[in-house]
């Protein structure tokens, strides 16, 4: 038994990323979540500080027909600590981060940055009432720090940890206190399945795999492929510390360029999934902590 705390994508092309930040995707945007189920297979496209963002409601990061990485605006804003206003009548979204303000409109290949019109080569969409925007336009226009590594866009700024989402995740993620390499494992493939039954119970399972990027073998007892389910009312993750009645999970040796996978299952009633996050790291062993 594992203790749990309570409370969507594909490989990028470097050439395309250099020109526009994004590349091709195996994420099927047409397989967006419906009222009763979620079925997603993909690979990680987006990372914010120490956590890969695998899914955010109602659709995770995906690449559109113009090969631009698209993200739900409100979800990304919540993760970064930005402010969003959405006008449903005009189908217009306004996002503010630090001193910058950007305005997008559905179906328009123009946007306004601090009141000045600008052009882009794709257009925002509305999917299941969520305003979805090209991430590249957002990060470049608003000077949001980012880098490209291991086939994904990584947004990096200590300020992101102060968003309400990451404050709660960091508060509950006790394993952060004994991390010795926060990027030892490159989060790659994932599978998310969620089904709702007639009793309004939602059963879900997320399986994530990671690749050893350390350049050497990860010793037994150190691997920590850590999955976090962030719901409307609760947060679930495996405990990284053993207790009297719950032993620590097995942490296998991972060879150089080897792969490891972990799964997290959940049962919810009237508590919809908001985010799936994952951290690919190694921990200090008990002997190393002495």
UniProtKB/TrEMBL annotation:
Residue stretches making up the Copper amine oxidase-like N-terminal domain: 60-151
Keyword field contains Flavoprotein: no
Keywords: Signal
SUPFAM superfamilies to which the protein is assigned, alphabetical: Copper amine oxidase, domain N (SSF55383)
InterPro entries linked: Cu_amine_oxidase-like_N, Mao_N_sf
Endpoints of the signal sequence: 1-31
Keyword Signal found: yes
Name assigned to this protein: Copper amine oxidase-like N-terminal domain-containing protein
């Amino acid at each position: 038994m594992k203790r749990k705390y309570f409370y969507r994508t594909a490989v990028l092309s470097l050439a395309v990323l250099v020109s526009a930040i994004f590349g091709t995707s195996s994420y099927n945007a047409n397989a967006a979540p419906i009222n009763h189920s979620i079925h997603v297979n993909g690979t990680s496209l987006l990372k914010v500080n120490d956590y890969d963002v695998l899914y955010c409601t109602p659709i995770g990061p995906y690449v559109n027909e113009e090969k631009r990485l698209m993200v739900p605006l409100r979800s990304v804003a919540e993760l970064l600590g930005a402010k969003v206003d959405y006008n449903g009548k005009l189908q217009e979204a306004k996002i503010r981060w630090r001193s910058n303000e950007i305005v997008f409109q559905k179906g328009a290949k123009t946007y306004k940055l601090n009141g000045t019109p600008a052009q882009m080569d794709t257009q925002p969409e509305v999917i299941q009432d969520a305003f979805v925007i090209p991430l590249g336009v957002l990060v470049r226009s608003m000077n949001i720090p980012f880098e490209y590594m291991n086939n994904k866009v990584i947004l990096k700024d200590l300020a992101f940890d102060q968003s309400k989402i990451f404050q709660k995740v960091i508060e509950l993620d006790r394993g952060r206190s004994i991390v010795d390499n926060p990027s030892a494992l490159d989060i790659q493939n994932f599978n998310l399945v969620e089904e709702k039954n007639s009793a309004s119970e939602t059963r879900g399972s997320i399986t994530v795999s990671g690749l050893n990027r350390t350049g050497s073998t990860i010793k037994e007892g150190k691997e920590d492929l850590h999955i976090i389910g962030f719901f409307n009312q609760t947060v679930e993750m495996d405990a990284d510390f053993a207790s009297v009645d719950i032993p620590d999970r097995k942490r296998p040796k991972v060879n150089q360029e080897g792969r490891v996978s972990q799964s997290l299952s959940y049962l919810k009633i009237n508590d919809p999934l908001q985010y799936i996050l994952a951290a690919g790291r190694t921990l200090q062993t008990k002997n190393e902590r002495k």
